[in-house]
């Protein structure tokens, strides 16, 4: 039955591609080539202009020895770099937005209730899932919702960072990949998460905690050996106790679950508020499917959470997913269209694979 449904969708997609999408892509390919060529010409012109300026400046005696000369040189380099970065970025963004607008209505005919530009995977859901470490900067790329076999799902390409501002700005990567949220077929009472072994960026832990410890240590050292700075010792102890307390409290919310499958236990860690429910959810068949899913997406990092009658998967990948075309490659290249189809079908296959539409076991 599953193969039949997938075959029907593939047949509809191929028919739609040949009859409606291909003519649109052919016209938009001319637009892509024009923008691409314009970007190349602007970048070449920027490099030539800067090169000529440097040549002219070098002919002026004493130019490089003056503050004015060095300032002009630095400004020229900055302008060139800005042009080389901003022009392609702006063009790619415009290209991707225009392509989706032209193809969205056609895609609905094939994939059904697929709505682009909106997703229930928002900052609140992400924090509630406890699948990630603390973050203070979040950005989205493609977002969409859909319904398959009466199962609601939301998808969002997401990147999360934790940034420490200061004299020396520090950026901690938290997550980059795709987050998928499905309506659960089970009445979930407790919170359970499954994550790839060794992934410590979970349970809303602050990735900059070790950095705070490095700041605390000099306070302890100075406060201990300098009686006039004893207040620094108390501040350091207070910060250290807070870090330890926060770590312990977050660990108490979800305790480690040991499962009988040793191979799964080597690859994944399971945490839950309820040991019994966790074993009910993480069945041997689910373990096998999750491990196979990690392999099929070609990633070493995958995790999922059961909470509030939802199942959330987070798949780490640097790839730019759900794109019908590439700015730097012809839109008539069927390989990219096939990749897009396979990525959408991977979501439908997850619903079939994990039996999310059934009211019985996983």
Blueprint (SSEs and pairs):
Blueprint: H1 2-59, H2 67-111, E1 115-116, H3 123-129, E2 137-148, E3 151-164, E4 170-183, E5 192-196, H4 209-225, H5 230-253, E6 255-257, H6 262-267, E7 268-272, H7 275-281, H8 284-296, E8 302-307, E9 310-316, H9 334-353
Antiparallel strand pairs: 1-2, 2-3, 3-4, 4-9, 5-7, 5-8, 6-7, 8-9
Helix pairs in contact: 1-2, 4-5
Features of this protein?
362 residues; alpha+beta; 3 domains; nine-stranded antiparallel β-sheet; 9 strands; 54% helix
Distance between the termini: 18 Å
Following the backbone from N to C, one meets helices and strands in this order, namely: HHEHEEEEHHEHEHHEEH
Strand content: 15-25%
Using only CA atoms, what is the Rg? 26 Å
Can you list the strand order of the major beta sheet?
1-2-3-4-9-8-5-7-6
Overall mean pLDDT:
77
Share of helical residues: 40-55%
Computed structural class:
alpha+beta
| Total of domains | 3
Low-confidence runs of at least 5 consecutive residues: none
Largest sheet: 9 strands, antiparallel
What sort of overall outline do the alpha carbons produce when their principal axes are compared? flat
List the total number of helices: 9
Number of DSSP strand runs: 9
């Amino acid at each position: 039955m599953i193969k039949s449904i997938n075959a029907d969708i593939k047949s509809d997609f191929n028919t739609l591609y040949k009859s409606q999408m291909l003519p649109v892509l052919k016209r938009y390919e001319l637009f892509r080539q024009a923008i691409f060529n314009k970007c190349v010409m602007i970048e070449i012109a920027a490099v030539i202009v800067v090169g000529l300026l440097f040549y002219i400046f070098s002919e002026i005696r004493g130019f490089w020895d003056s503050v004015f000369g060095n300032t002009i040189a630095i400004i020229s380099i900055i302008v060139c770099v800005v042009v080389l970065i901003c022009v392609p970025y702006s063009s790619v963004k415009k290209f991707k937005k225009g392509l989706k607008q032209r193809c969205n209505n056609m895609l609905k005919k094939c994939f059904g209730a697929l709505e682009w530009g909106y997703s229930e995977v928002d900052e609140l859901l992400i924090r509630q899932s406890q699948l990630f470490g603390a973050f203070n900067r979040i950005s989205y790329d493609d977002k969409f919702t859909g319904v398959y076999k009466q199962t609601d799902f939301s998808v969002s390409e997401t990147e999360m960072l934790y940034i420490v501002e200061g004299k020396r700005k520090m950026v901690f990567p938290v997550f980059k990949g795709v987050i998928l949220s499905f309506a659960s077929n089970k009445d979930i009472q407790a919170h359970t998460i499954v994550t790839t072994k060794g992934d410590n960026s979970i349970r809303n832990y602050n990735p900059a905690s070790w950095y705070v410890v490095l700041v605390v240590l000099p306070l302890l050292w100075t406060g201990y050996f300098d009686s006039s700075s004893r207040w620094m010792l108390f501040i350091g102890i207070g910060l250290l106790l807070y870090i330890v307390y926060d770590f312990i409290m977050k660990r108490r919310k979800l305790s480690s679950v040991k499962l009988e499958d040793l191979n799964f236990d080597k690859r994944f860690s399971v945490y839950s508020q309820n040991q019994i429910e966790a074993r009910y959810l993480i069945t041997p068949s689910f373990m096998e499917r999750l491990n196979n899913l990690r392999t099929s997406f070609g990633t070493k990092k995958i995790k999922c959470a059961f909470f509030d009658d939802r199942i959330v998967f987070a798949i780490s990948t640097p790839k730019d997913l759900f794109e019908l075309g590439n700015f730097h490659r012809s839109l008539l290249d069927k390989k990219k269209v096939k990749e897009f189809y396979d990525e959408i079908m991977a979501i439908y296959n997850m619903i079939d694979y994990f039996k999310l539409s059934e009211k019985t076991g996983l």
